[in-house]
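Suppose you are handed only two things: the residues of a chain and a line of SMILES describing flavin-adenine dinucleotide. What would the bound structure be? This form records exactly that question and the answer produced for it, so the two can be stored side by side and reused later without any lookup.

QUESTION INPUTS
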Amino acid sequence: MNLSEIYYPRSIQELIAIMARQKNLQIVAGATSFGYIQDTRYLFFEPSIASIRNIPELKTIHKTERMISFGAACALNDLESVYPFEKKPAREVLRATANSTVRNIATIGGHLMYQKRFLALWPLLACLDAELEFKGPSGTSIKNIWYLTNEEGLPSLESRRVLTRIRIPLQSIDRLFIRRTGAEIFPNGDGAYLVAASTIERNSISYFRLVIAGQRAFRDYDAEQRITSSPYPLTERVFHSVLRMYSESLHRTKFWNMELFLPLISQALEDLQRSSVL
Ligand SMILES: Cc1cc2nc3c(=O)[nH]c(=O)nc-3n(C[C@H](O)[C@H](O)[C@H](O)COP(=O)(O)OP(=O)(O)OC[C@H]3O[C@@H](n4cnc5c(N)ncnc54)[C@H](O)[C@@H]3O)c2cc1C
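ANSWER OUTPUT
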């Protein structure tokens, strides 16, 4: 039997020094998904494992006028009372994720770095333009969360890098539309979330994002642009032209069930047309 060496670094520098020495280092945060990401029936452990739960810098939450930043080792339950989860529809998605015991252990970093599919909070954070900070022996990089997808919309994760922080611009989102479809989200079911976030300023829409994520992730930048450049409320013509754009882009991906998702996108647009705000 091979025994793995387990490291418990107390700082990011210590973790990076271990990463530089150990080429195939398995990072573990809450370890709640550890058994599910295994490809074989038998548990396989890398020769070196680093548990990142005891790194204080990865457990802090900072807030400035423009940004909120979570350390990647914050437990999901630690996020309940901070933006965007203090708002009702976002908090409901958080509370529908696993159960409170799991959320006390599962970290936001492990949630986003689950390699088999996109978990529940991913599309919400994608709609809010979250940025992810990664560190590794070769330095620091900051990427929009969307860069964790490849051209087929599948998860594409950075190797030999640790996710250190998740930064979300603090902006006033007037409408947050969230719908769940399918059965299981975890560990690998057909469930997905559709999230649309929008901001309305006087007679125009200044911000609009619509993301669907489950086994794959989907977004149509052109349709989002068409909406943000249009007066509010949307005219019938713009409404139908945007719906057509979504229909064509969903069709191109050949993955999403149009009969399920097109009516949901239509509902998200109708929701946007209603003037009351969150
Ligand atoms: C019983 C149960 C029910 C669940 N139900 C749901 C559900 O309804 N909806 C849902 O969306 N999810 C659900 N989950 C999944 C849960 O959200 C994830 O298991 C959890 O968020 C993963 O976090 P973790 O800290 O335990 O990650 P770990 O299991 O420790 O790690 C997950 C992966 O991420 C990598 N990783 C972790 N942290 C980092 C980092 N900082 N940088 C780079 N890589 C990293 C690890 O190497 C590993 O590959 C459920 C889980 C369980 C156990």
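WHAT STANDS OUT: Residues 175-273 form a domain with the Enolase-like; domain 1 fold (CATH 3.30.390.50). The mean pLDDT is 94.
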